[in-house]
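Q: Give me the 3D complex with S-adenosylmethionine.
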Amino acid sequence: MIEMTLDKLPRKVLARIDLQTAFMVSQCVLVAENIGLFRILEDKSLTLSVIRRKTGIRSWKLESFLAVLGVLGLVVRRGDTYNNSRLASKYYVKERPIEWTRFYSETCFLDYADYSVLKETLLTGKSNIELLGIKREGYVEYMRRDKHAAHDFTRMLYHDHLRDAELLSKNLDLTGYNNILDLGGGSGVMSIALVRKYKFVKACVLDIEPVIKVTKKIIKEHGLTKRITTLAGDMHKHIPEGYDVIMLCDADSSKDTLKNVYQSLDTGGMVVIVDNFSSEDLTKPLFRLLWQLRSNSPWLMTLKQAKEQLQEAGFRSIRQKKLYGCTWMLTGLKR
Ligand SMILES: C[S@@+](CC[C@H](N)C(=O)[O-])C[C@H]1O[C@@H](n2cnc3c(N)ncnc32)[C@H](O)[C@@H]1O
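A: Here is the predicted complex, encoded as structure tokens.
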């Protein structure tokens, strides 16, 4: 999946965007994406009245809204009809599944609300939650409460992690191992890539129940039900035994979890972590820093800290391998 980063925009469009007011541009794109405008305009030239009907937009501002998207090179107007530009079609329709459109745009709105009180959080030290006066649930609670969110998240993450999965299967040597437990395994995308490469390997994806319902379908779609099983559970409460590989890919690899993983893993077994890490001086990458600013507790972790945690949990022969950017694979053995 390719993200619509600013480098995809023509220079003449970029030249019109001022960094201090870029949030207005961003909101227009976000709203267009969230109400499904780009999907409505895909392969169709529609008049304002049809767009009104299909999107539910009632405001007299619709024309200006479409004009902004036009200036950004996302919507093309011909006479009194509008349709997608090639850019919008590629990045907002063809390159992303509908689940990505729905789940990601909703979380962007939450981020936007958090960022609306950035100044106050910096000056007062209070959390966004306190300042906004709202209760904010984590994404796991959200998915536990709302099966549609669990569906969209799991399908979205399948696409989002295809590249990680491919690189994991290229870089992880599973010779001599048979049985993987994919903790917080989500869509199972990592396990799918590994069992495809290693014909002797079986995997079990453990995740919360609403996610596992979707994972089962994905595994069936790939024809892998004989080699990948699923388990609905809570990895913070119980990690099953009987596995010689335990994976944590973009899943909680805190000290406590690693200690529990160590306890449950077979002797001679391997733990595998795939995650993004911050630079040693905590100044990169940008997206992690931006997440830290909207978060209410410090969580940035460096590769060195992650390796120390593995060591502390009891793992030995700890190895690291860069997959791409700030995404690394770490492995450790239980002797
Ligand atoms: C960011 S996703 C990564 C999914 C998958 N490992 C991948 O790489 O695509 C983290 C996953 O951990 C799961 N998770 C979070 N807390 C959990 C818990 N207590 N028990 C089981 N799974 C949990 C979430 O439901 C989610 O599917």
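A quick observation: The chain has three domains: 6-94, 98-155, 162-333.
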